[in-house]
Design a protein that fits this description.
151 residues, alpha+beta, 6-stranded mixed β-sheet, 37% helix
Length: 151
């Protein structure tokens, strides 16, 4: 029995070592590039976007503004921020393939959708919409993250 436990522990240790090694390899991968849109910055905890090969992964973008607190205004600003990340990566929102929308109130769905469709008038990307209890900024009503292709 002791031999079996040791063998199991040895295998687990080896597996953890391999996982750790592949994580380090992925982090050191030169094909992974940080993308920063105009007027944006990298923080200690996130990058506005990450480019891997011909794909761009934009972090969730808030749309808070002291000038327009409506859901339509925040959705527009959120997608404008996403558009900046895509542009810095060398693409446009026309190449978005998947977006996730986080709303703090399900009653804002129609207002968000009205502003959202202006950015994707035809061939919209796949999308999920999730209602959440809160976003990281108390006045935020919407956060949108998108992934896309770079031609």
């Amino acid at each position: 029995m002791l031999r079996t436990r040791r063998s199991t522990l040895t295998l687990m240790s080896l597996a953890l070592s391999l996982v750790g090694a592949s994580t380090l390899t992925a982090q050191a991968n030169p094909a992974r590039q940080v993308v920063v849109g105009e007027g944006q910055r990298v923080s200690a905890t996130l990058s506005p976007g990450i480019r891997v090969g011909n794909m761009i992964f934009a972090s969730g973008q808030l749309g808070t503004s002291p000038n327009d607190t409506t859901i339509a205004g925040q959705t527009t600003r959120s997608l404008e921020n996403t558009e900046k990340v895509f542009k810095a990566a060398g693409t446009t929102l026309a190449n978005a393939v998947k977006c996730t929308v986080f709303l703090t109130d399900v009653k804002d769905f129609q207002g968000m959708n009205g502003a959202y469709t202006k950015f994707f008038p035809s061939n919209p990307p796949a999308r999920s919409t999730v209602v959440v209890a809160a976003l990281v900024v108390p006045s935020a009503k919407v956060e949108i993250e998108c992934q896309g292709m770079i031609p």
